[in-house]
Design brief:
By secondary structure, the chain is mostly beta strands. It is built from two helices and 16 strands. The strands form two sheets. Strands 1, 3, 4, 7, 12, 13, 14 and 16 form an eight-stranded antiparallel β-sheet that branches.
Length: about 300
């Protein structure tokens, strides 16, 4: 009896330590990017750069979503939630994303680029062009003069930004996952660490069971958990299609920042960004939800 009570109490302490289950989640943002919700998108989100609503290429049925990039070179797009909020103690972001690689007939590309990023950033004004970063590896996020600090979870798809700078994408290890913790005047420079901050922190190659299945692999739900107090981030993935739904709540990456790292933004906007350079791809977003406190891996609230 005593041992059972101890185990139950220990389980409660673990839940509380992760910020899970301590309270019913409060929704911070919730947006479906489809025509049925088109009138709410302009109110809840600001699109900068190449972001637009379009039909997903090759979809069996009309599937309207937010396309941040469109298999065209030199793109950068970002969608910022219009609401600027004080940083939650902890939060979870869910994003339903499909990445396709179908270069145009006049494109000679054989490998995709560059990726996408989920972000929480202190942006001076999301309605201004200064809220948009560069194209290519900047993913429409980095280098924006109107961003003073940011944290992000990145999915990188360009082989030149993979560990060891691969010669091409044939191994499938061009798809990597990493975190960013940037202070003032953020940029996307390699060599970030949990102790010093920066970009490409804890860069992790795609797991074997997902090798070759992220790009042109259908819809996936990414879950980004952040604990502002503990300085932790976790990233999970779940497949949403019949062809990939055997993947459920698989952890892709985790990191704990030290006290020396730049402080997380004290306030900011949630957003999602993507970019192409010489290599191309299409990054499509079906919905974006953020809640506080951070939630255990699983489905978002309806």
């Amino acid at each position: 009896m005593h041992r059972g009570r101890f185990l139950f109490a220990a389980a409660l302490m673990l839940v509380a330590a992760k910020g899970w289950g301590a309270a019913a989640p409060t929704t911070l943002i919730s947006q479906k990017f489809d025509l049925a919700n088109a009138s709410t998108i302009a109110t809840n989100f600001t699109l900068q750069g190449t972001g637009s609503l379009e039909q997903l290429l090759g979809s069996a049925t009309p599937d309207i979503d937010l396309a941040l990039t469109h298999n065209v070179a030199g793109e950068g797009g970002v969608a910022w939630a219009t609401a600027k909020i004080p940083a939650p103690t902890s939060f979870t972001v869910w994003a339903d994303i499909n990445v396709d690689f179908h270069p145009a007939a006049n494109e000679s590309q054989t490998c995709p680029a560059d990726g996408f990023a989920l972000a929480f950033a202190d942006v001076a004004d999301v309605t201004k062009s200064a809220a948009l970063g560069g194209a290519g590896g900047s993913m429409g996020l980095y280098g924006a003069s109107g961003i003073s600090s940011l944290i992000a979870s990145e999915t990188n798809t360009w082989y030149g930004n993979a560990p060891g700078k691969l010669a091409d994408c044939s191994s499938g290890n061009n798809v990597t996952f990493e975190f960013t913790d940037e202070g003032a005047k953020p940029g996307r420079n390699a060599g970030g660490t949990p102790d010093k901050g920066g970009a490409y922190i804890n860069q992790t190659v795609v797991p074997p069971n997902l090798n070759g299945k992220i790009i042109n692999g259908g819809w996936y739900r990414y879950q980004w958990d952040v604990d502002m107090t503990a300085g932790t981030m976790d990233l999970y993935i779940s497949g949403l299609d019949a062809s990939n739904n055997s993947v459920q709540n698989e952890k892709l990456n985790t990191v704990t920042f030290t006290a020396n790292a730049p402080k997380f933004p004290a306030q900011g906007h949630f957003g999602i960004a993507a970019g192409t350079g010489g290599g191309t791809e299409g990054v499509h977003v079906r919905q974006l939800i953020a809640v506080t406190p951070a939630q255990a891996p699983g489905a978002p609230p309806q």
